[in-house]
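Running low. Got one?
___
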Amino acid sequence: MYPGLLVLTPEFGLSITNYRQKNLGAAMENAKQYNLTGALYPWTGARFGNCTGVGPCNDYEYHINNDIALAQWQYYLATGNLTWLQTQGYPLISAVANMWVSNTRKVQSNTSDTYSYQTFNLTDPDEFANFQNNGAFTNAGIKIIMTAAIQAAQLLNVTPSTAWVDVGDYIDIPVDPESGIILEYDGFNGSTPVKQGIPYSWIYKLTSQPMSFY
């Protein structure tokens, strides 16, 4: 709903970004609870934005963090308000980027000197598939948020974190080696029931093209 609200009624779009900024402090405390840096938002934030039984923060739908950070970036792109970006949007975007730096694992190849960053124990929009590794939707979102954080830092004359660049460049998007089709997560096969489909052509576009259009 947010992109439509942002275009048609920007004041309603701003109320959504305001809510997430109000809970940034709680999200930073959530991250500390799980030995992470930056900000970790729960699946359902309610009034206080803390981790709860119905709004878990850990080992669940981490992609909500990408959605929240992307909304901030999209608000800046829609308004061009650099002061807002500096004081409101960038602190949240950078905090989510820092969370991903601490919540991805650098995995070295067994056969070469290459490496990738991977995610573990998560759920993508397909809620039939819990506790999976390298969800394509989540990992593609990480790439987008790292790019947004870098671009926002450059606009504000802040030096971007080299870790953002590294994770954004090398986040793993699982692909079937024979067909070249993007997998929903590591080990996914076509016979697995899916609750909510993910537009893989969209993921491919986002991860294979320059990100400057965001």
